[in-house]
């Protein structure tokens, strides 16, 4: 229990600790093979005398406890609601066990005389990165204590010293100056390693946190900006609609008769107010979707929304002598969506189709199921969209050159709104078009939408 | 003079009230203007108009907003039968029921009416009620002909279908 509090893992997220724990286990299999390989090669090829029994037994112990760790890891990562404390403890235990194991191998391989003593560095790097600073330094101290006490006990003759004859020529462990010096260099190396690893990691973590905070701030500021635009456009809309109402009253002659030129000028003003209202309404629509991430959603029938919109357009089609085709293969499929928004998508796409299709042209609307999505296509035989314009078409205020030639007044926001609505519904929109040959806009909405919303 | 139907026009937009007044007077109605909800409520009691046209958003000038006023009217036994035509300028689409919905568990008052500060942007974030006990909606800016037609159609009813809907 105490270990848990004394060795907390740093800011690392649970999943990261989980991944690293698995990484340790994979590496340890390599260590088993490595130890067995090196021992075998040293004794067979280089004819070095080694206490083979102990070393092979060590490799077996390593493999055994690694298997136990693997089982425990599987249980830990399968348990619902990951327990960070348990994972932290597990990581600390793994590092400590490995330190013990490395000391065991070194003891039977000549102790401080064996250059493999610097393998402690690996453990320090891992501890420095993965564990809290306190825990990392504690493991460093533990490593120094282990190898130091082993060497000194061997030096004092309390435990046997296994000299790897022929590797270092003499038994240097009995040279006190060498022993103390080597241990000093080793300890300082280990602590400096931990310090460096921990410093770099701390800086990275710090930056990550700052980046995260900055991102959140940006998102919030973006929302506030949309809220601001929303408020401003609403106030603008009130005024413009009142101006329009005033003009209409005069134009209708309710305030007395007016001259022809006055009527004409007031009509111009009224037309401009209509355009301005359209513009503000689009801006309002766009901002309200952007400001409010939690759109009210309910189960809606895309077919029914489509039918309703088409009904409202029928007069426009007739007036422009446009042949309209409607194919619906959905059979009343329901999706979780904001009804007004989906209606807005249909309106904007059909509006564009009517606007940019010359009279006598053809528009077809198709609804179908495709790969678990509802796919809607609006095809027209209109002016088409140049390839250069296609990229920017969904950007705010963007209008294609040929569209501007046909219709001077256009807000350039219709498709931005459509795109925004698609984004808020986990949907997608794209187009196929060739200049002069018509366009086809297709959007797709997931049937089983994972998005949350009120039903 | 006495045959003229009276319309209470409640909106804090003075210019809009003036415009609608011209339109409705030309159609033969008598107009009582009210520029804030308190005086609208008072005039409703004293003048007893045949119908009330109410802006959904009474701005900061009003003591409270239009949504709350509707709730207050429906709770007043003497006024609950008032015909109300609501003017909306936001995309506020609420179902208008043909018959009375089940009274249990149906919220009338809205979040906006619950003592929150009446900032203007609030209406965009408020939890719009699932329905409003009004008799009809008209969008701003209203076409003069459409306004007259809506008022005339509603007046055929004489009494709101919400009369006595909420006893309190």
Please tag this protein with its features.
heterodimer; A: 455 residues; alpha+beta; Heat Shock Protein 90; 3 domains; five-stranded mixed sheet; two-stranded antiparallel sheet; 13 helices; 7 strands; elongated; disordered N terminus; disordered C terminus; B: 168 residues; alpha/beta; Rossmann fold; five-stranded parallel sheet; 5 helices; 30% helix; globular
Topology (elements, then pairings):
The complex is a heterodimer of chains A (455) and B (168).
Chain A: H1 2-6, H2 14-44, H3 52-78, H4 84-107, H5 120-130, H6 133-155, H7 176-251, H8 260-291, E1 298-301, H9 302-319, E2 323-328, E3 334-337, H10 339-355, E4 362-370, E5 373-380, H11 387-390, H12 401-406, H13 414-424, E6 428-433, E7 439-446
Parallel strand pairs in A: 2-4
Antiparallel strand pairs in A: 1-3, 4-5, 5-7, 6-7
Helix pairs in contact in A: 2-3, 2-4, 3-4, 4-5, 4-6, 5-6, 5-7, 6-7, 7-8, 8-13, 9-10, 10-13
Chain B: E1 6-10, H1 14-26, E2 30-34, H2 37-47, E3 51-55, H3 66-75, E4 83-88, H4 122-125, E5 136-139, H5 144-155
Parallel strand pairs in B: 1-2, 1-3, 3-4, 4-5
Summarize the structure.
The complex is a heterodimer of chains A (455) and B (168). By secondary structure, chain A is α+β, with helices and mostly antiparallel strands.
What does this structure look like?
The complex is a heterodimer of chains A (455) and B (168). Chain A has 455 residues and is an alpha+beta fold. Chain A has 13 helices and seven strands. A five-stranded mixed beta sheet of chain A has the order 2-4-5-7-6, covered by helices on one side. In chain A, helix 7 (176-251) runs antiparallel to helix 8 (260-291). Chain A is elongated, with a radius of gyration of 37 Å. Mean pLDDT of chain A is 87; it is low at 1-11 and 449-455. Chain B has a single domain (6-155), classed as Rossmann fold, CATH 3.40.50. The radius of gyration of chain B is 15 Å and the shape is globular. Chain B is built from five helices and five strands. Mean pLDDT of chain B is 73; it is low at 91-130. The A-B interface holds A 227, 230-231, 234-235, 237-238, 241-242, 244-246, 248-249, 252, 254-255, 277, 284-285, 288, 291-292, 340 and B 13, 15-16, 18-20, 22-23, 26, 89-91, 93, 120-121, 124-125, 140-144.
């Amino acid at each position: 229990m105490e270990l848990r509090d004394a060795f907390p893992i740093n800011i690392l997220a649970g999943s990261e600790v989980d991944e690293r724990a698995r990484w340790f286990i994979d590496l340890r299999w390599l260590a088993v093979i490595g130890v067995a390989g090196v021992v075998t090669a040293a004794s067979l090829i280089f004819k070095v005398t080694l206490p083979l029994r102990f070393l092979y037994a060590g490799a077996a112990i390593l493999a055994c406890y690694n298997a136990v760790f693997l089982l425990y890891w599987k249980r830990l990562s399968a348990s619902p609601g990951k327990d960070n404390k348990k994972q932290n403890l597990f990581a600390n235990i793994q590092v400590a066990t490995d330190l013990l194991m490395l000391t065991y191998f070194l003891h039977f391989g000549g102790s401080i005389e064996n250059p493999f003593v610097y393998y402690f560095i690996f453990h320090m790097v891992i501890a420095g990165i993965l564990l809290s600073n306190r825990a990392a330094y504690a493991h460093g101290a533990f490593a120094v204590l282990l190898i130091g006490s082993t060497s000194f006990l061997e030096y004092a003759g309390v435990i046997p010293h296994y000299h790897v004859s022929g590797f270092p020529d003499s038994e240097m462990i009995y040279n006190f100056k060498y022993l103390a010096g080597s241990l000093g260099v080793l300890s300082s190396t280990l602590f400096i390693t931990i310090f460096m690893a921990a410093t770099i990691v701390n800086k990275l973590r710090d930056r990550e946190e700052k980046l995260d905070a900055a991102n959140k701030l940006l998102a919030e500021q973006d929302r506030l900006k949309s809220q601001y635009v929303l408020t401003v456009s609403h106030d603008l809309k009130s005024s413009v609609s009142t101006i329009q109402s005033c003009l209409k009253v005069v134009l209708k002659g309710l305030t007395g008769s007016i001259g022809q030129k006055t009527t004409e000028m007031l009509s111009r003003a009224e037309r401009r107010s209509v355009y301005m209202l359209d513009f503000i309404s689009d801006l309002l629509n766009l901002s309200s979707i952007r400001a409010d991430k939690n759109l009210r959603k309910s189960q809606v029938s895309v077919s029914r929304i489509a039918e309703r919109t088409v009904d409202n357009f029928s007069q426009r089609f007739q007036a422009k002598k446009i042949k309209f085709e409607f194919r619906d293969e959905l059979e009343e499929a329901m999706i979780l969506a904001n009804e007004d928004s989906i209606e807005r998508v249909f309106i904007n796409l059909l509006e564009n189709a009517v606007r940019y299709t010359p009279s006598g042209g053809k528009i077809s609307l198709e609804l179908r199921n495709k790969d678990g999505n509802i796919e809607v296509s609006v095809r027209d035989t209109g002016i088409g969209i140049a390839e250069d314009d296609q990229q920017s078409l969904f950007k705010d205020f963007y209008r294609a050159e040929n569209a501007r030639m046909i219709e001077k007044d256009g807000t350039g926001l219709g498709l931005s709104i459509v795109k925004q609505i698609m984004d808020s519904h986990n949907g997608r929109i794209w187009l196929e078009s060739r200049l002069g040959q018509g366009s086809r806009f297709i959007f797709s909405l997931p049937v089983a939408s994972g998005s949350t919303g009120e039903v | 003079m006495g045959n003229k139907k009276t319309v209470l026009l409640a909106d804090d937009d003075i210019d809009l009230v003036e415009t609608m007044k011209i339109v409705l007077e030309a159609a033969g109605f008598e107009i009582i203007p009210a520029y804030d909800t308190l005086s609208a409520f008072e005039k409703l009691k004293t003048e007893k108009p045949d119908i009330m046209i109410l802006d959904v958003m009474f701005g900061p000038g009003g003591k409270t907003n239009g949504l709350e006023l509707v709730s207050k009217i429906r709770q007043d036994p003497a006024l609950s039968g008032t015909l109300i035509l609501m003017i909306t300028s936001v995309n506020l689409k609420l179902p208008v029921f043909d018959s009375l919905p089940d009274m249990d568990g149906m919220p009338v008052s809205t979040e906006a009416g619950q003592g929150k500060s009446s900032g203007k942007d609030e209406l965009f974030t408020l939890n719009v009620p699932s329905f409003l006990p009004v008799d009809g909606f008209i969008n701003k800016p209203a076409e003069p002909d459409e306004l007259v037609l809506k008022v005339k159609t509603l007046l055929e009813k004489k009494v709101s279908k919400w009369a006595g809907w909420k006893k309190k």
